Amino acid sequence: MVNLPIREPAVAGQFYPANPGTLRRMVRHYLNEAELPAGLHDVRAVIAPHAGYIYSGPIAGYAFKALEELPQKPWTVFLLGPSHRSYFNGIALGNYAAFRTPLGDARVAVDRVNEIVEYSEIFIHETETHIFEHCLEVEIPFLQVALPDFQLVPMLFGNVDPRRVATSLVKFLNEDTLVVVSSDLSHYHSYAQARDLDQALLAALLAGKQARVSAGEACGREPIVTVMELAQTGAWQPHLLDYRSSGDTAGDKGQVVGYASIAYTAV
Predict the structure, then answer these.
(1) Tens of pLDDT along 58-72?
(2) Measured between alpha carbons, how far is 167 from 246 in angstroms, rounded to an integer?
(3) What is the CATH number of the domain that holds 256?
């Protein structure tokens, strides 16, 4: 493990502040502003957006606030997101010792990563696809503030059947693991059209209709369907915590990107 590289931040200073104090204060503000529904407990997974913090940070705060309220203990976080820059088959598990952010190094659960790669050929050790990818990186400062003790299993999705991914992953999940899915919703529609598209996708997600989610607009459709399949297997219940678009936060309403935070709880 000591010989494995550190994955350096690619979008610090762009998607989120590079200054540690500014970054921590920003994340803390988003967490403090989030108001969770009463009775939300035993969270097993969340879905959170991954845009620049001024756009999606207020919405992401809801997902990570749900994690912050979990018991303080060592967690292994399966962090799932779509590859925006590389096309490949399978799931790329970065062969790293840690992911670095301005808040420090988030350790990778190297032994768990190796077990998963050995378990199925759909999982590969691949570092190149992670170098410039933002979707996992932007979630990590939220994790670093919300969870005092965790290790990462970083998973970038290429061309892969999400149900097959879920069938494999379920063998590695237990009471000490969490699943975090990184995804935005519709991209670059008018404010009203985006809301219609996003509400239709979210209704399908909450109803467990995987095919409709797969046909909808979300850059992380495959990771989302993966957690939907895990939820079906584990009898997890989805809860919509917040939905807004960039037109509600820091952008105009001409062309917006949609964001939602969702928590899955054990029934």
Answers:
(1) 999 999 999 999 999
(2) 35
(3) 3.40.830.10
